[in-house]
Amino acid sequence: MQSHLLERLSRNSSQMVKIPPKQQRKPDYRYFLTGSSFTGSWSDALRAMDGYGLYTFPDGSEYRGYFVKGLFHGYGLLHLSKPYGITFRGVFAEGRLSEMLDIWFDDNLHVEINLQGWKADFDEWHYCCEGDRRYAIEQSEGLAAVGPKPFKRIGQPSFIPKKMYDLGEGLYNPSTRMIIKRPSPFPTYHYVACGDERHKIIKGYRSGTPLTIKDVPVETCRRIIELNLKSEEELQEAPPSCNYNPIKERKEFLKGLRRAFGKKPENLQARSLTDLEENESFASVGTVWGVSTSSCSSFTCESLTVDREEQMETTRKYDKIVWGCLPSGQSLLVYGGA
């Protein structure tokens, strides 16, 4: 009945998000009327997400982590799809982000930030800052000369209605002080309440109002080029500052996996889960790989019973290795009983 209702709504209602036809739906996935989908631990009693799983929003953004009674609860990764391309790692409590632990972009550029609660310290951030404003391509190939009519954005410039300003994330209307046409997953409209921010937008952003562009004097162009060359010479004296190091990130990730299997890095060869010894896969990996932690050695009714307390403790130890320290005294999941 539920699948018939989904097909009927997706076929007849133009207001509903299109739900994939039955033959195109992935196995072990649940599809909701909002256009979202979920795969993972599902509680039939609660008829809700409860445990570890992957929740996909209609725009492609994903939450991968723990759920309790249908809400984000525990450690998790929240990835925002394009055009943002940012991943947040943190601790969620009853559907809300309560603690931020880490941030990185889709190109593996890591945000060097010291988070203390909701206060952020960017002293360790050296990429595209005041001391070195170069992008990665400019660090490797040098700075390009700035001309009198530089491009404002990559590709063809978008159409800007008259008396509106292009902010990149949307269009600003100074008469209503509203930013409109913002891409998902953020709200379509945003009110700019800060007077200083409104002044910066009007002064520094591109407008749809026709403007007369005057030619820059030759002497001014020469001065611009001289300053660019001087700036490049000064920047080359210092080493490039970029927080992206994919080799280092990959090594750290592999070290975490190796520690999870209880092996030293120099003695461990790459193996699949099927190549692991029985006690290794059961004791070290546990239910993260979907393996029961029950100690029964034969197929009986008792062998189907999972020790919930042992299962949670094994998962907790694994997360501590992969994700770092856990909050003291807190459990990742909350259950009414074993």
UniProtKB/TrEMBL annotation:
Cellular compartments annotated: Cell projection, Cilium, Flagellum
Chief localisation class: other
Keyword terms of this UniProt record: Cell projection, Cilium, Flagellum, Repeat
Pfam family, one: MORN
GO cellular component term, pick one: motile cilium
Feature: compositional bias, Basic and acidic residues: 1-10
Ranges annotated as spanning the membrane: none
Region annotation Disordered: where it falls in the sequence: 1-23
Protein name as annotated: MORN repeat-containing protein 5
